[in-house]
C-alpha cells in the first residue's frame, strides 16, 4: 500500500526524527521547510510557512496525495519566541500565530478533500497548549489555539475516515529548546530536573508517538501528552 507523509519542519529536531521514522517504516516522505531534510530518501520542497502555500506547491502535494492510498499530514514546524504580556507587539503575535496556527489550517484547507479515508492529520502542540509559563506569550497562546484547531478539524472531518490528533511534547532535546535557553547547559539541567525522569525527551520518542497516532484512528480528536511527566510545583 502506498503511504505518503507530508511533514512540515522536517529539516531538524522532531520533524527530522519523524521523517526518519516514517521513511524507515516504508512511507514516502515529503518535507516542507526552508532547509532540506537531512534524511536520505526524504523529498524536500523548499517552503516558508510564513507565506501562503503557492499554487505549484498545492498542485504537487495534491498530485502526491492522488498517488497514495493513505496520507499522514504532520504539522510540526513551530515558532518559539521570548515575549510577554508587557510589550508584545502585534507583529510578534502575528508571526507565532502564522507558523503555529494559520499555516497548518491553510495547508489543511488545500489538502483535506484530497486525503483518502484512512489518512491522518497530526498537529504538534506543546505542554504550553494547556498551561503557560512567563515569557512565552505568543507561543503559549498559539499552542492553545492548536488544540482548538485540531478539535474543530475533527468535527469537520466527521464521516471522511480521516482522523486527527495533537501530540503535545514536553522538553525535547532539539535546536528549538537549546536556542531558547541560549545553549546554557545549566538551564538545560534545571529543565531536566523538573521532569520526573530527570532528563530531556529524545526527538525519536516524540516521532514514535506521532507514528502511533497516525496508525490508530481511535485517537481522534485527542490531545496526547508526551512529556515524561513534569513535576508540578
Ligand atoms: N523541543 C521542545 O522542547 C518542544 C516542546 C514542545 C513542543 N515542541 C514543538 O515541536 C515542534 C518541532 O519543534 P523542534 O523542537 O523539533 O524545533 P526545531 O528543531 O527548531 O525545528 C523546527 C522546525 O520548524 C521549521 N520551521 C520554522 N519556521 C519555519 C518557516 N517559517 N517555514 C518552514 N518551516 C519552518 C524549521 O525548518 P526551517 O528552519 O528549515 O524552515 C524546523 O524544521 C514545534 O511545533 C514545537 O513547538 C517542541
Topology, pairings included?
Blueprint: E1 3-8, H1 13-24, E2 28-33, E3 43-46, H2 55-66, E4 70-75, H3 90-111, E5 120-124, H4 137-156, E6 163-169, H5 175-180, H6 185-193, H7 203-215, E7 222-226
Parallel strand pairs: 1-2, 1-4, 2-3, 4-5, 5-6, 6-7
Helix pairs in contact: 1-7, 3-4
The structure holds NADP nicotinamide-adenine-dinucleotide phosphate.
The site of NADP nicotinamide-adenine-dinucleotide phosphate has 29 residues, from α1 and α5.
Briefly say what this structure is:
With 233 residues, this protein is of the alpha/beta class. The protein is built from seven helices and seven strands; from the N terminus they run βαββαβαβαβαααβ. The protein has one domain: Rossmann fold, CATH 3.40.50.720.
Q: Could you explain the architecture of this structure?
A:
By secondary structure, the protein is an alpha/beta fold. The protein contains seven helices and seven strands, in the order E-H-E-E-H-E-H-E-H-E-H-H-H-E. Helix 3 packs parallel to helix 4. The radius of gyration is 17 Å and the shape is globular. The model has no long low-confidence stretch (mean pLDDT 97). It binds NADP nicotinamide-adenine-dinucleotide phosphate. NADP nicotinamide-adenine-dinucleotide phosphate (NAP) binds next to helix 1 and helix 5.
List the ligand species: NADP nicotinamide-adenine-dinucleotide phosphate
Shape: globular
Which class best fits the helix and strand makeup? alpha/beta
Radius of gyration: 17 Å
**Helix-residue proportion:** 40-55%
Contiguous low-pLDDT stretches (5 residues minimum) are none
CATH topology: Rossmann fold
Task: Tell me the CATH superfamily.
Answer: NAD(P)-binding Rossmann-like Domain
Q: What is the N-to-C succession of helices and strands?
A: EHEEHEHEHEHHHE
Please state how the strands of the largest beta sheet are arranged side by side. Answer: 3-2-1-4-5-6-7
Number of strands: 7
The CATH architecture category equals 3-Layer(aba) Sandwich
- In total, how many domains does the architecture comprise? 1
On the 0 to 100 scale, the average pLDDT is 97
Amino acid at each position: 500500500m502506498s503511504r505518503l507523509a507530508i511533514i512540515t519542519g522536517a529539516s531538524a529536531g522532531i520533524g527530522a526524527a519523524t521523517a526518519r521514522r516514517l521513511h524507515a517504516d516504508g512511507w514516502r516522505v515529503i518535507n516542507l521547510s526552508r532547509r532540506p531534510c537531512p534524511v536520505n530518501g526524504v523529498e524536500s520542497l523548499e517552503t516558508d510557512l510564513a507565506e501562503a502555500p503557492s499554487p505549484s506547491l498545492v498542485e504537487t502535494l495534491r498530485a502526491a496525495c492522488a498517488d497514495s492510498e493513505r496520507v499522514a499530514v504532520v504539522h510540526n514546524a513551530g515558532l518559539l519566541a521570548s515575549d510577554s504580556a508587557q510589550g508584545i507587539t502585534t507583529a510578534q503575535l502575528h508571526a507565532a500565530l502564522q507558523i503555529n496556527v494559520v499555516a497548518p489550517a491553510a495547508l489543511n484547507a488545500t489538502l483535506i478533500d484530497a486525503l483518502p479515508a484512512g489518512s491522518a492529520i497530526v498537529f504538534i502542540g506543546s505542554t504550553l497548549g494547556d498551561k503557560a509559563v512567563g515569557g512565552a506569550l505568543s507561543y503559549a497562546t498559539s499552542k492553545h489555539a492548536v488544540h482548538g484547531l485540531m478539535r474543530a478539524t475533527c468535527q469537520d472531518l466527521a464521516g471522511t475516515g480521516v482522523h486527527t490528533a495533537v501530540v503535545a511534547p514536553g522538553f525535547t532535546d532539539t535546536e528549538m529548546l537549546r536556542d531558547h535557553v541560549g545553549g546554557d547547559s545549566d538551564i538545560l539541567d534545571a529543565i531536566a530536573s523538573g521532569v520526573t525522569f530527570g532528563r530531556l525527551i529524545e526527538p525519536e520518542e516524540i516521532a514514535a508517538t506521532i507514528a502511533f497516532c497516525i496508525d490508530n484512528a481511535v485517537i481522534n480528536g485527542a490531545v496526547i501528552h508526551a512529556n515524561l511527566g513534569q513535576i508540578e510545583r
